[in-house]
Hints:
This protein has 87 residues and is α+β, with helices and mostly antiparallel strands.
Amino acid sequence: MYCWCGAEIHPKRVQILNKAGYRLTCLKHSTTEKVGGFMATGGKTERELIIGPQEVINNLHKAAARAGTGVSRGCKMNQGFSQKHFK
């Protein structure tokens, strides 16, 4: 299959677009918003994949990269506890 501009459309894209009821276009002429993914950690072993619009995902990545969120850099675990109780 070919786009109206003459570019060849990948067969998997044709299959997906037909199934979803979208017009057959190449990636260059697509009007569909890009999506992205973000791995959110809710606890020690709980993880969740968030899939959403690229703008929202970029904001999540920026927020997660800020200093003071997540694991502190350069912090040794239980340093205060071990110094007090295991001399």
